[in-house]
Design goal:
By secondary structure, the chain is of the alpha+beta class. The chain is 34% helix and 30% strand. It has a domain of 83 residues.
Length: 135
């Protein structure tokens, strides 16, 4: 099965994808049930951005972290990711079981002019291919 990580704060969920930016991160986790995956959940944490903005940011710390989901299929999970702009971020980790699906989704978005910043997606394609081909 290779390198896997447990989602932070979720003992039964596994980390599927983690993407980083200067202002925070996003994580997609899911629950494994036998040979299937379910309950995909997205957590976007912009806490680093909050630290940089200081008093200029929202008053409540919780305003910098939000969740989306659950989604019961990979296709629905991609919808959660697409709303977050995940393809513009630096991918730090991809679960081994999802590497072929993630790189396929990134390639589709790089070729699709409807997604935001397709040039940036294409530029980072080799980085994502490297991460998704890691053993």
């Amino acid at each position: 099965m290779g390198d896997t990580r447990t989602a932070p704060g979720a003992h039964t969920d596994e980390l599927i994808l983690e993407a980083l930016a200067e202002g925070g991160s996003l994580t997609l986790s899911a629950r494994r049930k036998a040979a299937d995956w379910t309950r995909f959940a997205l957590v976007v944490d912009e806490g680093t951005l909050a630290d940089l903005l200081g008093e200029d940011g929202p008053a409540e710390p919780g305003d910098w972290v939000y969740t989306d989901g659950p989604a019961d299929t990979w296709e629905a999970a991609l919808g959660l990711l697409d709303r977050s702009g995940w393809t513009n971020l630096h991918q730090d980790y991809v679960h081994p079981d999802f590497r072929p699906m993630v790189i396929s989704a990134v390639r589709e978005r790089a070729a699709d002019g409807a997604h935001t910043r397709p040039v940036l997606i294409h530029k980072r394609l080799s980085e994502r291919e490297r991460i998704c081909s890691a053993a």
